[in-house]
Amino acid sequence: MKFLVDAHLPYGLVRALRNAGHDARHTRELPQGNATSDLTICRLATEEGCVVVSKDRDFYDSLLLRGEPPKLLLVRVGNLRKTELTELFAQRLSQLITLLEQNDVVELERDEPGDQNF
Predict the structure, then answer these.
(1) Would you give the distance in Å from CA 85 to the centre of its chain?
(2) Is the full-model pTM beyond 0.70?
(3) Could you tell me which CATH number the domain at 2-109 has?
């Protein structure tokens, strides 16, 4: 699976994806770097068949209104240190891949203490 990780997320997510055998890029690797517009990210993801990984809900709205990006992994974990986010991401990656194969939008959330998630 191909991924494009948005500017507001750590580069460690790209490393985790690559280590798992996926094609992944961070916006900082694009010609305009982290200043790349959301529209450009959506078009690139559509052209290359990438899943956009972002905290930015604007991508969700774009998917609903314009069908771009074709797939979205929306990161909704609140405030976590980069290492904690990368660890959570790596732990759930297999499940996330399965969900992305079946859905256009998947949300990554953190279990809060006391949650009854299975």
Answers:
(1) 12
(2) yes
(3) 3.40.50
